[in-house]
Amino acid sequence: MHRAGDGSQPSRVDPARPYADRGRLPGARPPLPFVPLLAWAAGAIALAVVVLSVVRGQGPLDDPDPAQQRPGFLTSAAGARTVTDLRLPGFVRGRPALVLFDRQRPNSQRLQAALGGVPARVQVVLVISSGGKDGLGRARVFQEPSGRASRAVGLDQPKDGGPPIGYAMIDRQARVRYVTLDPGYLDHGFELALIAKAVS
What we know:
Layout: H1 35-54, E1 97-102, H2 108-114, E2 123-128, E3 139-143, H3 148-153, E4 166-170, E5 176-181, H4 189-199
Parallel strand pairs: 1-2, 2-3
Antiparallel strand pairs: 1-4, 4-5
């Protein structure tokens, strides 16, 4: 309120002054209009990079149904298939087992690195289409070109129609709790360890 004689002037809003400038300190520069746009573009580019690095394009060794590959959750004990007739060297009923499937013998160092987090109580069997039966570290090797073992655990056939590359996790009651095609399993040691610990 203006008081007579106190020298003050009433505060009034200049209708000609742009609304965006009201309340800004004298001499302050207005914000650059393109800054929010640049921030949005930078965020979009960062998100695209993350998505491209995580989501790998489908290849000939992948599952024809992407939803069935590396689903990330265990099959319930009640709904899991039982592999009572599975006969593999080193596979002992009553112990959890990680059964790996490959077309040939993988690099020994990479395999041992991938299995580094898998508990010792979990038996590891590697089923290959060709390449010999000599063991690879803690993994017992079984050469089987017929595909009987992969069919027994319910492993899908890849897009190229050849032998599957992936793995199955079997619990103490010989139930297949997790099975997936995964041609990059040697690079997914964290997943192998996580699933093996959950089942064992």
